[in-house]
Every structure is written in structure tokens, then in C-alpha cells.
Amino acid sequence: MSKIFKIPTQFYSKYGIVPAGFFIFILMWTNFLPAQVNGLQAGASSSNITPDLGEPIVGNWNSPPATYIHDNLHARTLVQTELRLAVRKPDEVLQARMEKVRNNPEGAEPVFHRREQSYARRIAQLENDWPDSIDVVLQAFRIGDLGIASSPFETFAETGLEIKEKSPMDHTFTIELANGAFGYLPTPEQHKLGGYETWMGTNRVEKGTTIKLVNELMKLFDKVNKE
After folding, report:
1. What is the pLDDT of residue 31?
2. If 164 and its partner were Cys, which of 16, 48, 127, 209 is the partner (CB 3.0–4.6 Å)?
3. Are 182 and 134 in contact (CB under 8 A)?
4. Which among 154, 156, 89 has a CA at the least distance from the CA of 128?
5. What confidence tens digit (pLDDT) does each residue in 150-206 have?
């Protein structure tokens, strides 16, 4: 990566995941810069965002002038796709259990769990308010040798590490909760182990979603990795 622009590795090197809020801040910050400085233009297949000597450098808290150029830094703009996923719905057994919870008098001992009323409300929302499937937005783009992927879920570290391992870029991280907030996204292995993140309502989409998500992101990375 060029020495004139470098995202600190502590943000992505260990787990491969960065909350969307951090990157949204960076994008908002750079969008307020003059157009000739912030050279990454939406719709362009590739942009050379290396500043000329003496021009302000994007990527620091201030904008010192460029005094040398190690190499040209190219940014390939964002590509995206929509991934259709099935929404989890309660079966008859779970419906019957939640009906017992809802019929339990207020103040009485829990039927199953001390948090069961909250769980029952989430189950009812999935059953009554959510469609059978949803389309989620996935995105990827590249800055130099850094690949950036997005996920509209609270993504597990295992998934972030898998994306890093399979990415064709030298460095990669994932922005979670980008373009949506659809709940936790456990891996299929984690679904087998159970736990709060796997509960229906906490996790809202089909159990094999991480497999589909990683496959689609690799297709996007292949596009942005081509000049």
C-alpha cells in the first residue's frame, strides 16, 4: 500500500471486522473535503487518488502537503449486489411454547426462562410482521491493496477471518451493520452449539447465510480486483 494513505492495521488485522459507525465517520469526513482532494468518484470504475506533489493528503487528521510519492494509489469504486435470504419462522412446537408464555399471568413464575416474554415478542414479530424472505445489500471496494467488504449483520469473527483468508487482496476487513441491521449472524457451526446469538428473533435469517454471504463477497472482490 502506498505510504501516503494507510488505514491503521489494528482496526482490522486481528478479527477482520470493523463496526460500520467507524467507517461511516471516515466517509463523512472525507466527503466534506474539496472535490479535487477527495478524488474517489462514485460511478467511476477506477480512480487514481494519489495527490500531486504539494497538494493536501487525504487520510490524516490534518492535510499536510505531499512531499514525495512512493507509488500511485488507485481506488476502485464500490460494487454491490443483493442477496435473497429466507427469514426464520417458528414451527408448530415453538408456536405452542410461545403461546404458553403469552398466556402466563403477569408476575407468575416463568414457564421456560426468565427472558421468555421478550423472546415470545420477537417470535411474534417474525411470524406476523416479517416476510418469508428479505433482500440484503452486500458491497465491496478496493483502495490500493486493501479490500473492504460490508455485511448488514452483527458478523462473527469466524466469518471475518474466512473473508480475509479467501480474499484475493493482500489486506481485507469487513464492515458490519452496513446497509442494514438484521441481527446476529452465527455460522452454521455456532447454530449447532446454540446460545443467545442463535435464538430465533436474535438471528432472523436462514442458518446457512454465512456460506452464501462469503461466496457473494468473493464474487464482488473478483470484480474490484480487476483493473
Report:
1. 43
2. 16
3. yes
4. 89
5. 999 999 999 999 999 999 999 999 999 999 999 999 999 999 999 999 999 999 999
| Cα dist from 39 to 57, 86, 90, 198, whole Å | 11, 39, 49, 42
Residue of 31, 30, 37 lying closest to 52 (CA atoms): 37
Main-chain dihedrals φ then ψ at residue 71, nearest 5 degrees: -160, 175
**Cα 17 from chain centroid (whole Å):** 8
- Per-residue pLDDT of 22-52, as tens digits, reads 554 444 444 444 444 444 444 445 566 666 7
The per-residue pLDDT for range 87-130, each reduced to its tens digit, is 999 999 999 999 999 999 988 999 998 989 999 999 999 999 99
Asked whether the predicted pLDDT for residue 21 surpasses 80, the reply is no
How many Å separate Cα 40 from the centre of its chain? Answer: 21
Taking a C-beta distance cutoff of 8 angstroms, is the pair 8, 26 a contact?
no
**Contact call for residues 16 and 161 (beta carbons, < 8 A):** yes
For residues 47 and 75, the answer to whether their CB atoms sit within 8 Å is: yes
Q: Minimal CA–CA distance to 4: which of 74, 73, 76, 77?
A: 73
